[in-house]
Amino acid sequence: MFIRPKKPAPEPYVRSTLADLGYRIDPEDGKVRSIATGDMYDSGADKRRAAELYQSLAHPASREVYQIMVEGDLRMEPVAVPSSDQPHTSIYATPGALAKDKLVVIVVGHGTCGGVWASNVLLKSGIREGSVIDY
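Now predict its structure.
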């Protein structure tokens, strides 16, 4: 019996930033836009191409939100919950938040990067609607 060997699947080319993909978060309106044309991310009529583009942009866009939260003007600090000496998750707090009398906790969606409500909203509506940045 002859069994045809499977062709190895090509390694996907993973780009590390929105700029590598030809996109950026517009500083004026916070929308994810093409660097070349200025057009917003669009799911378009070609569903397969739209799904590939979405998968390519979702993680880099979320990382940019994280960079704004932690390295940008907000200077949010990761806080380990329950504690860093056991299995934990991190929340992000503004400087001095845990020393205040009142604390507001914002919980983002399941399966998203910290600070992002939903990747779909981030890509279609922009950083102001799709992340905690304005809150």
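The chain is about 25% helix and 10% strand.
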